[in-house]
Every structure is written in structure tokens, then in C-alpha cells.
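Dear U.,

For the methods section draft, I wanted the exact inputs and outputs in one place so we can describe them consistently. I've listed the two proteins in the order they'll appear in the manuscript figures. Please don't edit the C-alpha cell lines directly; just add comments below if something needs changing.

First protein:
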Amino acid sequence: MILPTRTGRDAHTPRPLTVKRGVNPHASGSAHLCLGRTEILATVSVEDKPAPHMRGKKEGWLTAEYAMLPRATTDRQARERNLQNGRRHEIQRLLGRALRASIDLKHFRNQTLYVDCDVLVADGGTRVASVLAGYAALHDFADRLIQTGRLSEWPLRHAVGAVSVGLVGEELRVDLDYAEDKVARADLNVVATDAGLVLEAQGGAEDGPIAPEEYIRLLMTGVEAVGGLLRDLHRQV
């Protein structure tokens, strides 16, 4: 098998990240994020109504939704109308867990925050790019609340990001594009904070088992890479 090569970055360097916040004038917060050729639009909406399971609680709730536009990929995909789609449901749960960890929901009692992440262009890593885009949109949302005086305390408690890491042949690579993801013999999606705390790791071996040391190396490399991506993101938002 001929393994894909990288141009312009080494094995431990993520693809270029660019982010612009405040791109949707109708949303309470928004961000357009590019990670290489993968593009995500994330928006934040607020509903003055508690989630059913949060009625009477002292905190609000955050939920996330994920969708891929029909021409996000090389071939047109049917528009996702089935909310029970397994992959979509799994990604939405990941996004919700990650983004709830980033925000102190005590500021939003009896409210529900919706973070919508739409994939405009897919070239691998759409779920990790959606975590980054969702966090950038929440950052925009939080900044608006402070600037308008609706909150006096910064509501974000953790900077949260994600990255993919994988073994392509014998080489550990950070932030796999689609061509690399297809041939990786093991891969993880690592969700972490800028302080190096792990929130989640999804994935595993694709071509037979790997040694525990390799798994740990994937995880630790991912955590370090998330820190770098978040520093880059914060310089832009």
C-alpha cells in the first residue's frame, strides 16, 4: 500500500486553522472555522425554556446538533433528515459533552443553549473541527454577553478543543485528512482542555491490535496538539 504523504507540514503539525467569529447576524454567537480544507459553520441559539430534565434545577442545559451539507463531500450526499442516523447521533453526543464542559451553565438557569455545527466542506476531521468551531461560537456568545452587560462574569470555564491522531504505517500523525484517515491502522479523536485535561478519546485500532504504549502515545500527542490549536484559535477570536 502506498501511504499518503504530507506537503508543507510534518507529522506532528496540524493543518492550518483559521476562524472568524460573529459571522451570522441572527445567532447569539457564531463562528466559521477552517481546519485545512474542512470548513464548519457553528452557531449558538438561546431558548428561554429549560430542557425537560432540567426543570427545577439551578443550571441551564446545552445541546449540540451536527449536520453535513449535501455537497460537503466529493459526491452529493442525501440531506440528513433522519435524526436517528447513528454516526450523526454519536457526533452530536460528543459535541454536547465537550461543549457543556466548557461553559458554566449556572448562568443560564431555565434556558437551553443550542450549538449547531454544519459541515460546509469535509476533508477529514469534521467532528474535531466541529468541537473547535462550537467552542469559538460559544466564545463569541460569551463576549457578546459581557459587552452588552447581560453578564458580569465570564461564563466559559474551560477552553475546549479536539484533534485527530493516528498511526499511518509506522508514523504517528496529528490531524489526519481524509486520505490519511482511510488508511490509518489506528486513530483517536482526542477532546481536551487548554490545560491538558482529557475530556474524551474516541477510536481505536483499525488493522489489528496495537500496544498499550502506542495508544498512550496517541493520546498524549493529541492532548499536546489540542493545546496548540486552542492557542492558535484564541489569537484569532
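Second protein (the one for the lower panel):
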Amino acid sequence: MDRQELSALAHANHPIYAPVSDSRVDDLLARTVRRPDAHVLDLGCGKGEWLLRALRTYPAITAVGVDVSSEGFGSTRESATRLGVADRLELITQDVKEYRSSCKADVVLSIGAAYAFGELLPTLRAAREQLGDDGMFLLGDCFWEREPSPELLEEMEGAGPQRFTDLPTLVDNVVADGWTPVFQYVSTQTDWDDYEWSWVGSLADWALDHPDHPDREQLLRVSAEHRHRYVHGYRGVLGFVFLLLRRS
């Protein structure tokens, strides 16, 4: 099973690809979508669940999602058709760093996708290029809740180009780049546990329910490795923040 298929399966019971509850997603969207006919762009949209939630809630908005992987797009399009919102949704398979549109967005979302741009500042620049003058940008990103161990820091920094900071530094960097935060939500430990254990449990459950499947041992191994990384590594150390931003 490749990485995209595995990720889609891991998120089966927690389709929002971030440590946040359903009710908080609704609240964040309510704060972000301020125009009834808003055009919403999600950079690094995953399977497009944030857009599906927004379209279901706001009957006059339009939405575009961009992601390098199309895994999960099929089921999202099916859901959009079932909900009667498919004509207002476009999902594009493309590297977000290369995406350009002549249509400025009223809302830009980038939730846990800064790694796709390499780091935070290119993410902010991409959002600024796509956002209308009075638009709202909802950023979701990780930070260090407390000082990580050298082993954890080495492991996390070896996983990709992005380097995390503490929360005050993250906010200061956003402000220095020309943004004004108007709302902040920090994921709770309950948010994290629900997300991570849904991830771990979805893989383990599937493997145990399919004892003869050739991918069974792979999924059990990945689930166990992820569980160990979370419980023994970044639980209570890695944080996640949502920042609602406007141009300064």
C-alpha cells in the first residue's frame, strides 16, 4: 500500500487531517467565511474535507482545493454530488508551489500544509498571492509546545524541510511578514489524542479485520510505529495552532 492510500485509510475515522474536533472546524469556518458568496481556496487540501464542510454549510460559496495527491478526491466528489454541491467544487491535482489562479480568493486555507511549501514563510507568500485585498487566511501549523528532546528534534527534522519554532516565535514571524492575527485556537491534548489514536486505530482495525490481506503486516507495523512515536515522543511536546489572519 503506498503512502497516499495508507494516509487515506488512516484518516477514515477522522477525515479532518489535523488535531481538531468537528465542532471546532465549524467554528473556525464560521469565523473565516465572512461573505455568503465567498470564493474559498485550500492550498494543500488533502482529500478536500474542509471545503466539503464549507460548501455544505454555506450554500452560495465556491471552492477550489489543490493537492499534489488525488487520493481521496474520488470519494469527496461522490460526497459532493450526494450533498448537491458538486457544481461549486473543483479539486486540482498539482504541486501547490506551482499553482496560480487569476481569480483572487476571499478565503485561503492552509491547514498543516506548510511542509508542502518547505516552511512557513513561503506558505504565507503563496496565500498573499492568492488572496483578495480584504480576504481571510486560515493557517494551521505545528509548533513546539515545550522543548523537544534532541532525539525527537533529530527525528522530526529528518522527516522533511520544515523546522518548527515555539508559538510566540511563530506568531511573531507571521506578524513580521505583514499579517494581523484576529483569532487563534490551539489544539488541546484531547484534540491530539482523538486525532492520533484515530489514525493508529484505523490502520490497526483494518489490518485485524483483514487477516489474509497481503498488506496486513505493513499496516500493523506502521500503526505500531506511529503509536510509539506519539506516546513516547511528541505527545504533549508538539502543538498545533490555527491562526486567522488578515493583511496588516
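Candidate sentences for the figure legend, describing the second protein: The chain is about 45% helix and 20% strand. The first helix runs from residue 3 to 10.

Thanks,
Y.
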